[in-house]
Amino acid sequence: MKLAIFILFILFIASQMELTAQYTIPSSVLGNGGTLITGGANNINGTVGQPLIDISTGTTNKVLSGFWNTIIINATGINDETGNNLFSEEHLGQNYPNPFNTSTTISYDITRISRVNLSIFNVLGEKVVTLVNETKQTGNYTMDWDATNFQSGTYFCRLEIDDRAETSVLNLFR
Predict the structure, then answer these.
(1) Which residues, 6 or more positions from 142, have their beta carbon under 8 angstroms from its beta carbon?
(2) Residue 4: helix, strand or coil by DSSP?
(3) Helix H or strand E segment including 24
(4) Are the C-beta atoms of residues 145 and 129 closer than 8 Å to each other?
(5) CA of residue 121 relative to chain centroid, distance
(6) Which end of the chain has the lower number of beta carbons within 10 A, N or C?
(7) Mean pLDDT, to the nearest integer, of 116-129?
(8) Which of 90-94, 96-100, 126-130 has the highest mean pLDDT?
(9) For 102, what's the count of Cα atoms within 13 Å in the CB-facing half-sphere?
(10) Number of neighbours of residue 69 by Cβ within 10 angstroms
(11) Minimal CA–CA distance to 126: which of 156, 166, 106, 99?
């Protein structure tokens, strides 16, 4: 009987201890009050003692930042069982990687048969290369840009689909 109690006691103590293979990441928050900073077209909400915890918005931007920020992932294209495309509008995705060294991948979505022009411009507004200039079917597309012959700097990727255009920023670093 004493042996059974001793074994139960040891099991109880062992179950209360952390195993060495388990890691704990402690988190703590020191909040001394809330704050709202406004100026011009920008609003910044936060907690005193925790700068940058909340959503920063302006007339043309929205920035989610901070320790407690959640990530929302939006699907750019989904196919149903019949193969019909369910995304609702044309979209130019952000290139990846960005910044990049020699090459980057650019993604875009098309919702209907359209005339597509995908071009790269330098900061002076000069077209440096045309990647796509043709009629495309509905779908998701990716295009690789090999920039080994280009100088480091900021470039702009412009997607024109029929009468609509969208631009993203690409950063080439060597």
Answers:
(1) 105, 106, 107, 108
(2) helix
(3) none
(4) yes
(5) 23
(6) N
(7) 92
(8) 126-130
(9) 1
(10) 13
(11) 156
Token output for 74:
């939006």
Assign domain 91-172 to its CATH superfamily: Macroglobulin (MG2) domain (2.60.40.1930)
Give the per-residue pLDDT at 46: 58
Contact 130, 146 (CB under 8 A): no
- Binned at pLDDT 50, 70 and 90, residue 33 comes out as low
Residue 69's pLDDT is 47
> Could you tell me the residue ranges of all domains in the chain?
33-71, 91-172
Measured in residues, the chain has a length of 174
Q: Which amino acid is at 144?
A: D
Proportion of the chain in helix, strand, coil states, percent, rounded to 5: 10, 45, 45
What pLDDT, on a 0 to 100 scale, did the predictor assign at position 164? 85
Rounded to the nearest integer, the mean pLDDT of the chain is: 75
Phi, psi (degrees; rounded to nearest 5) at 163: -100, 10
